[in-house]
Amino acid sequence: MKEITLAPLPYADDALAPTISAKTISFHYGKHHAGYVKTLNGLIAGTKYEGLSLDAIVAASRDAGDTAIFNNAAQIWNHDFYWRSLAPAGKGGEPSAELLAAINASFGSLDACKAALADAAVKRFGSGWAWLLQKDGRLVVESTSNAETPCGQAGVKPLLVIDVWEHAYYLDWQNQRAAYVKAVVDGHLNWSFASGNLA
Ligand code: MN
Asked: How far is CA 182 from CA 83, 104, 164, in A?
């Protein structure tokens, strides 16, 4: 059968340290993310989902209300997007001229955009994700709960995401989610990736 695979990390496991340590990566990527892949492949074996792309599984399981399959597929999609949303310190580039114009039109400045993203990440109650999205022609910041994802939603183009599940930061920052978020927003967002995602 055609299985869903664990996408390779786009950098070494210590490339985001000390904000995100190699130990965190070993659990977050090596156990949590890999675990969603293993679980999903088990759940879809022999079903109508087997052989579909990950995006198609997210969409079809959402429509069908197949919650366990949706949760695992969406978490794989979100984590793939999260690893690519981050970059080693100094390697994230700058927003393209087009992205910067969209940021300025929607938030007033890049600093205001970063502040809005950090605020959404800190305020998300419980587990979830904070997103910079292109939505109906404008840029917006939103957060989603648990596995919920903008993947496949009409008119929505994700640009960046921050994981705020405790497993993303607890080994390095314990209960200090705001400090983790600040370190990510100030030093590790991949603006080159975000620029490439702009529709
Ligand atoms: Mn995670």
From this structure: 17, 21, 12
Residue with tokens 């405790």: 166
Token pair recorded at residue 169: 């930061």
User: Per residue in 132-156, pLDDT tens?
Assistant: 999 988 999 999 999 999 999 999 9
Interval between CA 195 and ligand 1 midpoint (Å): 23
> In angstroms, what is the span from residue 19 Cα to ligand 1's centroid?
15
Q: Cα(102) to centroid of ligand 1, in Å? A: 28
Distance 162 CA to ligand 1 centre (A): 9
Segments in the chain below pLDDT 70: 1
User: What is the per-residue pLDDT for 103?
Assistant: 98
Token look-up 């993203």 returns 117
Cα of 75 vs centre of ligand 1, distance in Å, is 8
- Residue 150's nearest CA partner among 129, 120, 181, 126 is 129
How many other C-beta atoms are found inside a 10 Å radius of the C-beta of residue 175? 10
- Residue 9 CA to ligand 1 centre (angstroms): 13
